[in-house]
Amino acid sequence: MCDVFDLDELEYSDGLSAEVIEEWDSLSHIRFIVAVEKRFGFRFSSAEIEGFSKVGDLVDSIAAHIA
């Protein structure tokens, strides 16, 4: 997340969202999703991506994919 959003540091919480991270715009959102997909070796569906309103939603989806 720090690399994608170009942050020096970030305190993680499941509730992090675009409302909390100023650098999180539509382009960085796409870059973030692509980085996660590359890191874990799978692709999210469009419906999954649209359902991510906070980082915790993304984490839950990752867990479901790798389980």
TrEMBL record:
**Matching InterPro entries, A to Z?**
ACP-like_sf (IPR036736), PP-bd_ACP (IPR009081)
| Superkingdom of the source species | Bacteria
Sorted alphabetically, which Pfam families does this protein's record hold? PP-binding
Domain Carrier, chain residue ranges per copy:
1-66
**Full protein name:** Acyl carrier protein
Record the organism: Sphingomonas populi
